Amino acid sequence: MPEPYLNSIALVGTIPCPAYPGKIIIVGRPSRGLAEVMPYLASLPNMIGYNPDSRALTLRRQPGFITLLDQTIYITRVDDADQGVHFLEALTAAINATWQHRSELTPASTRTRAPGPLDVWNLLPHTNCRECGEPTCMAFAFGLLQQTHKVGECPSLRDDPAFGDHRAALEAMV
Questions:
Q1: What is the CA radius of gyration of the chain?
Q2: In terms of C-beta density within 10 A (0-12 exposed, 13-18 middle, 19 or more buried), how is residue 120 classed?
Q3: Any idea of the CA torsion for 36, 42, 47, 52, to the nearest 10 degrees?
Q4: What is the strand order of the sheet 73-78 is part of?
Q5: How far apart are CA 111 and CA 49, in angstroms?
Q6: Which residues share a beta bridge with 60?
Q7: Distance between CA atoms of 150 and 143, rounded to whole angstroms?
Q8: Can you say whether the dihedral through the CA atoms of 121, 59, 112, 27 is positive or negative?
Q9: C-alpha dihedral over 119, 121, 124, 130, to 10 degrees?
Q10: Omega before 63 within 30 of 0, i.e. cis
Q11: For the chain, what is the HEC assignment?
Q12: Which residues of the chain does CATH 1.10.15.40 include?
């Protein structure tokens, strides 16, 4: 069996999560710098932002985000430190699995960014029909990005074949 990339990620602290009272942000320190594995992690489907120059990568997790820097990891929307330790162990395993399969991946080499509200809004029908539960399509776009809504909650995207391409693009984007 090949040598793992990481031995562990140590929990070094917690921070109150400002956007979600009662939740915390876990701060972890990997046993080895992450710069070498980041391009492979950036090729994964849950990647939402990567900057190879600053060695920063953000991944989507349900709920919240994981941000990796070369020597520090942040995981948002965690219930408590025990859950955070479990997440750090799972992340160690995921990083090691990605490293083990790196020959099957195309490493990312350029900066990528997460889609913004206007990127999402441009693919919506702009009817402001309110049938999704939001007062405007822009509010629905924010909900899609924050994962409080699903694409199929928009009746036009769900039911109108003319929006099939838009729906597919949104499903891939968010």
A1: 18
A2: buried
A3: 80
A4: 9-16, 24-30, 73-78, 65-69, 56-60, 47-51
A5: 8
A6: 65
A7: 8
A8: positive
A9: 160
A10: yes
A11: CCCCCCCCEEEEEEEECCCCCCCEEEEEEECCCCCCCHHHHCCCCCEEEEECCCCEEEEECCCCEEEEECCCEEEEEECCHHHHHHHHHHHHHHHHHHHHCHHHCCCCCCCECCCCHHHHHCCCCCCCCCCCCCCCHHHHHHHHHCCCCCHHHCHHHHHCHHHHHHHHHHHHHC
A12: 117-173
Can you read off the two tokens belonging to residue 19?
């956007």
Phi-psi region of 77 (alpha: psi -120 to 50; beta: other; left: phi over 0): left
Distance CA 20, CA 144 (A): 18
Task: Name the class of domain 9-104.
Answer: alpha beta
Q: What is 117-173's CATH topology?
A: 3-methyladenine DNA Glycosylase II; Chain A, domain 3 (1.10.15)
Question: Which pair of structure tokens corresponds to residue 6?
Answer: 């990481």
Q: Cα–Cα distance between 59 and 52 in angstroms, integer?
A: 14
pLDDT digit string, tens, across residues 57-84: 988 887 888 999 999 999 999 999 999 9
Categorize the per-residue pLDDT at 1 as very low, low, confident or very high, splitting at 50, 70 and 90.
low
The pTM assigned to this predicted structure is: 0.70
